[in-house]
Structures are given as C-alpha cells and as structure tokens.
Amino acid sequence: MSKTTSKIHGYAAHAAGAQLLPFQYEVGELQPNEVEIQITHCGICHSDLHLIDNDWGMTQFPFIPGHEIVGMIAAMGTQVKDRAHGQRVAVGWQADSCGTCEWCLRGEENLCAQSVATCVRRNGGFAEKVRVNARFAIPVPEVLASENTAPLMCGGITVYNPIRTAGVFPGSRVAVIGIGGLGHLGLQFAHVFGAEVTAVSTSPNKESEAKSLGAHHFVNSRDSTAVKKLAGSFDLVLSTVNQDMDWSAWVAALRPRGTLWFVGVPPSPVATHVFPLLAGQRSIAGSPSGSPHMLQEMLHVAARHKVQAITEAFPMAQVNDAMAKLKKNQVRYRAVLGN
Ligand code: NAP
Ligand code: ZN
User: Fold this and answer.
1) Does domain 156-286 have CATH number 3.40.50.720?
2) Is 274 helix (H, G, I), strand (E, B) or coil?
C-alpha cells in the first residue's frame, strides 16, 4: 500500500445556504478496495447547490460538496489490482455500492439500494483529495483534458444515460430542456447519436451556441405559443431544469411511444393528465447518473466524437464566487474548480 494522508483539506458548508469555508477532516486507514485521489479538478453541479441549500432534506453539515472529480491516484488499498499509482481517474456522483445485489451484479450499480453518493453524508471533491471505492474511479482516456472531463462525470453521464437507454438513433427527435451544465452536454450527445435536436431554453442569448453544440432548432420555453406548436414532435424530451414548468405541454410534445425523461429536479410534484399517456403510449421517466460501465463508455464516446464541456475555470479558493455565479444562471456552461 502507498503512503496515505491523515487529514484532507477542502471547502465545506456548515449550514444550509452558507458560504463554503476552509475545512479539514481526519481519515483513517485506507480501505483495501479504496483509492486515494489527488484532485486536480472538480466541476460544480447544480446538485451541489441543492445539497448546500439542503433542498432535498438529506444534507448533514458540515460537508465538502463536489462530485465531478478528476485527479491522480495517490494511494491504493491492498485489494486494488486494476488501477495504478499516478493514473488519471475521474469520479462522479457515486463513490461506492454494495457490490453484491442484483443491480450491482448486472453492472447497474447506480441503481443499488446501498449506493453511496460521493458528497452526501460524506466529503466530496471541493478538496485536495478524496477516497472512493476503486471501481468508481474511472480511468480517463488520454485525449481528454481534465478540466473538460470533470463535468462529464455527473453532467455528462446524467444526460448520456437517458439518450443511450431510450435508444436514440439517427431517426430520433430529441428535445433538451434547460441549456446549462447538463443541457449543453445533452445537445452534444444527442447530436452524436444522430438525432434531430431541439434546444429549449429560457435564455434567448444561448441560441447560437446551442446550435454550434448540435441543436438544429431552438425554442424559448417561456413562449407558450411556440411550445404548444411542438405537439406530437419528440421521441425523447429530456428535462434538465430544476424549476416547475407546464409538464402537460411537454407530454403533449411527445410523439407516440415518446418519453418525457426527468434528470433535473423540479420543486413541485409533476402534474399531468394520464389520457395523453394512454393515447400515444407515452411515458414519464427519470434516472440517476449512470453505472461505472456506462461512465467508461461515455468517456470513450466523448473522446472519439469530441464531446467537450464548455467550462469556466475558478481556483478552488474562489469556490464561493463560482457558486454565486451558478445561482444567477450566469455560468457558461460549467464552473470547474482547479487545484
Ligand atoms: P444548471 O447548470 O444550473 O442548468 C440548469 C438550467 O435550467 C439553466 O442553465 C437554465 O437553462 C435552466 N433554468 C434556470 N432557471 C430556469 C427557470 N426558472 N425555468 C426554466 N428553466 C430554467 O444546472 P445543472 O447542473 O445542469 O443541473 C440541472 C438539474 O439537474 C438540477 O436540478 C440538478 O440537481 C439535476 N441533476 C440531476 C442528476 C441526476 O442524476 N438525475 C445529476 C446531475 C444534476 P436555460 O438558460 O437554457 O433556460
Ligand atoms: Zn451532479
């Protein structure tokens, strides 16, 4: 086993909505299946903000947010055979799972009931180091830059999973609602899968960039007349927004067998009439992140097809400036902290 650290320094929230402050926590012996990662980059996902604000009632303070991590393996547990010291790896939302349930054995660890999230009741990646089960430390293809890879680990996989699972193909019509961290990657992956892509946004000034990222069409989601005109248009509507919208209108926008797929988390329950679901055999779905296998696949797809997060770099010490910009929907399109 390599030499490990005894304390990890990072930036933690101590109360709901609070600024992040320098913080350190003790770590014991490295577990046999763990790696310790020296972090170079960590993206800021909107879920970090939800956790800091305790929007989901699951946060225990103090905690270090961050779950879009890239870094080098600094130490390995005794049972880790398929990773190397100094290897560049990346970690997303999930840091561990039971490894023995049906879902883990099927390679769908993100559905494991014992799934451990990287920064829920645990300290994450706004730090110098982090420890995770080695299975969740995904090797990064050489051609990918670390700063652009970090956002793929949550933002990227979260949109890749539905596009892949829904079976998007060159004949598909896909709408992506919300062109932020997740959405700007969703446009790119839907384009790579060959779909006809529509960007749906509250920000008209994102139109030309959305089109350069792979969108064929751009719709202002606040223009209810334009949204109504989309009735019967899409095989997949992928919602990345964390706000309430007229979801009935988006069910109506589906073609027969189409799916309204939530990855963003709106504050209110989703209300829609059932009849349009029956009539066109339409569905409403959701998904959490993706498995280690799918993460690895997604990184290779991103490398091969040049899917790249557009990032704004911040030094780790300026994490609060980055969070403030994210709150105002001013980040284009993912803030990434660097050590
Ligand atoms: P983000 O970068 O802040 O992007 C969210 C986008 O939503 C914004 O860029 C904006 O796009 C749109 N938006 C903002 N205010 C809006 C409003 N009032 N009405 C409609 N749209 C609005 O956030 P993100 O990191 O992409 O995360 C988005 C959501 O996904 C969050 O709820 C996050 O917790 C969730 N998430 C889920 C998973 C999962 O596993 N399922 C994983 C990661 C994140 P426009 O300017 O284009 O309108
Ligand atoms: Zn996330």
Assistant:
1) yes
2) coil
